[in-house]
Design a protein that fits this description.
By secondary structure, the protein is an alpha/beta fold. It has three domains: 169 residues, Rossmann fold, CATH 3.40.50; 90 residues, Rossmann fold (3-Layer(aba) Sandwich); 132 residues, Rossmann fold. It is 36% helix and 18% strand. It is built from 15 helices and 14 strands. The strands form three sheets. Strands 2-3-1-4-5-6 form a six-stranded mixed sheet, sandwiched between helices. A hairpin with a 3-residue loop joins strand 2 and strand 3. The two termini are 47 Å apart.
């Protein structure tokens, strides 16, 4: 079962101009969500359409520009289309009129490079049916499924929806539990949640809500306190909590409050393990101690939000890193899934946020160029734990790993 916004399926629709991509989305949804025209190139930039489809549930379709777009502007559109591959769970390649060639094979190579499962659909089947040569070519590309589509015949749609459902990888529907493997039935988990300038009025931030739900889903008990009340409450708690989870910004205070025999970690580190590149975060975090004067650090935010005067990514983490290292470091922040302002190799370290608003695939693919280039990567919570001197304790619930700071100084 799909749970939460982050589990919504992302499906990219690819193909040449005027192959019927927008018509295909409109037919699947039963609504005119995308502009349809006989003029090639009507769709210029990727257009995102969220919808509910019977048999699939909540889906985000991404209608892309034609892979055969030409000219300087057309090539930029094609590049934007290719960038979508980093964010999707499934690709659908539409061909039409039995036309296929290098452009289709090139995009298929990109599907395989980014490990994106894909289907091939022969569009406009009512005008020119798929022939044996096209079917043979399609089979040689080794897609997960091959289907046909006719906008004038809705009988094609059930088979297409069924094929999409079978083609979606299980990981797109199911995400690893945040705390399930750390708890037993009836365990008490204490959550330390500061209510400060960054906390949305009248509600908790999304990672806190996700953790509370996961605790309840695993038949455990969630106790939520602010940092000011945590000390007094933990002294009289009976039974003592099996786990304490804190906001990274009060990590030092939580470390002092929580007895050493009680496991302690943060919301951000839980998210890093669930949907980030956790093993590479473990390798990359200690590199903070090796930063040098003049090096650049990139902070990746996965959502856009109003920036406060004490913003965690833009203000606090840079301040903590500079104070910890004693170095003059240059910081750059990229929000959403925007392109980077410079080559990945210009950075000495990448720090990814928890990623509560995007999928694990999106985070992994976003960090893939850095990993391949040998650039150390870490996560907001893990970086904060490192500079505040409590990293070994913060990761111990998951790894049992012993870290000696002196090895990196």
């Amino acid at each position: 079962m799909i749970k939460g916004k982050e589990a919504r399926l992302h499906i990219g629709i690819f193909g040449r101009r005027n192959n019927g991509k927008s018509t295909f989305i409109n037919c699947l949804s039963g609504q005119e969500l995308s502009i349809v025209s006989d003029i090639a190139g009507t769709t210029t930039d990727p257009v995102t359409k969220a919808m509910e489809i019977g048999g699939l549930g909540p889906v985000v379709f991404i209608d892309t520009a034609g892979i055969d777009d030409s000219g300087p502007l057309g090539q930029k559109r094609v590049q934007k289309t290719l960038e979508i591959l980093k964010t999707i769970d499934l690709a659908i390649l539409l061909i039409a009129e039995n036309a296929f060639g290098e452009q289709e094979e090139s995009i298929i190579r990109q599907f395989k490079e980014w490990d994106v499962p894909f289907m091939i659909i022969h569009s406009k089947e009512d005008l020119i049916p798929m022939n044996k040569q096209t079917l043979s070519w399609a089979k040689n590309q080794q897609p997960i499924a091959i289907e046909t589509f006719s906008p004038s015949d809705s009988n094609h749609l059930p088979a297409i929806i069924q094929a999409i459902s079978k083609s979606i990888p299980e990981s797109a529907y199911k995400s690893r539990s945040l705390v399930g493997d750390l708890l037993n039935y009836g365990d008490v988990v204490m959550l330390i949640t500061p209510i400060d300038i960054e906390a949305p009025e009248g509600r908790l931030i999304l990672p806190q809500v996700q953790v509370i739900r996961d605790i309840l889903d695993n038949d455990a008990i969630a106790v939520v306190v602010k940092e000011r009340e945590a000390d007094a409450y933990i002294r009289k708690m009976s039974p003592q909590p099996a786990l304490v989870i804190t906001d990274s910004q009060v990590f030092t205070k939580a470390d002092a409050i929580v007895p050493r025999n009680i496991p302690l970690t943060s919301f951000s580190i839980l998210l890093a393990r669930q949907r980030g590149d956790f093993q590479n975060y473990l390798k990359g975090t200690p590199k903070i101690s090796q930063l040098k004067d003049g090096e650049r650090v990139l902070l990746l935010e996965s959502c856009t939000h109003q920036v406060s005067c004490d913003d965690i990514g833009r203000v606090k983490i840079p301040r903590w890193l500079s104070n910890f290292t004693g170095k003059k470091i240059e910081y750059e922040v990229v929000s959403g899934l925007d392109s980077l302002p410079r080559p990945i190799t210009d950075y000495a370290l990448i720090i990814q946020c928890g990623g509560c608003m995007i999928t694990r695939r999106q985070i992994i693919n976003r960090l893939k160029p850095a990993v391949e280039a040998g650039i150390p990567i870490t996560n907001y919570g893990m970086a904060i734990a490192w500079v505040q001197g409590i990293y070994p304790r913060a990761i111990a619930p998951f790894t049992g790993q012993t870290v000696n700071y002196s090895d990196y100084l």
